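Students often ask why we bother encoding 3D structure as a string. The short answer is that it lets us treat folding as translation between two languages. Here is a chain of 408 residues written in the first language.
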Amino acid sequence: MVAAEDRAFHAWYRFVLSFPPHLVNEYLEKFGLESQSILLDPFCGTGTTIVEAKLRGISGVGIEANPVAHLASVVKTTWDIDPHQLMVQAQQVAMMTAETPVYQSETALRTLPAETLKLLLNNSISPRPLHRALVLLGSLEQQVESPYFDHWRVAFAKAIVKHCSNLHFGPEVGVKRKKREDAPVIKHWLAEVAAISENLQMAPESNAQTTVYHADARDVAQYLQPQSIDAVFTSPPYPNEKDYTRTTRLETVLLGFIKDGEDLRNLKKGLLRSNSRNVYKEDQDDVWIQNHPSILELADRIEARRIELGKTSGFEKKYPQVTRLYFGGMARHLASLRPYLKPGARLGYVVGDQASFLQIMIRTGQLLAEVAEGLGYQVESIDLFRTRRSSRTEQHMREEVVVLRWPG
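And here it is in the second language, the structure alphabet:
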């Protein structure tokens, strides 16, 4: 939950269970960042870190592989537009759309192509709200040259998921029993645009520059300048068997980022391997942890547990490999980052323990610290951030900030 005083900019669009802005601020202060510093978030999600940096006049660089999250991060750090015209022109688009016979139709409903519709969770949005959403999108796509186009699209993504879909998050994404048979899509979209406009009116003046790349954090070479980064603060995916693409599937599909199964596979291939649904034969990140016996032994224990329990599905057989690929991917990321860190740069990685791999505990923070040390980083501390209760085992899991230093 984000505190009321922290909702500006952040509330435009957020992942479920994103870390809170106050945690970012704590480490910005701890790292001693100033206006001339450059902060990197290589798994920037929906932009919590880089938004907080910009609010404090600190330049930021974000890297994000999920296209919807990347769009949100770009929009949430783009403040040089006219907030009044953002709203005025949105109202014009809304009026034009609402008055069209096709939007008002109750019979000839628009829908997605069959192959695209299959990508969605079944019943994630009812036919009438989907129809109205697609009509509004058609109007927005006619405004692609507008300086407000991307802000309108983020408002659309927020409105559709929160107010017009049948989805619920807790923290897994699912479909509600009671479906929304219809929804005033345009009304909800305008409300989200209005919230963005209000926030932009109070945006502080800042010389901070923010750039967000749509890219894979395991290979940062083409996006950063040598020895340019003063600090890193980020939260990579956890090895928790959650398919993060499901969380944003509805808006990813509606905004046209993926249209078929091949698009979805390509998206997943650009992500850190944190679940069995994005493991592929050609994956080789596990070569990065061949000299880490604790990780290899952990994967072996998971495999032994699978055999003991008689779990034989294709997904379950991949659990040990996910563990190796996850920490191998993090090793690859940390290795690729080294040339771009200033000597003495400090890094904070927010990660959490997991027990979802057949109930074998994965001490993510400890293992990540071990991987980092093997790559020449110094481990300053592993700070407890919060605890949470496992929905399966009732165990209390630690979420921690692994604090590193790059000696140069």
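Translate back mentally: The chain has two domains: 4-78+207-405, 83-201. Keep this in mind for the problem set.
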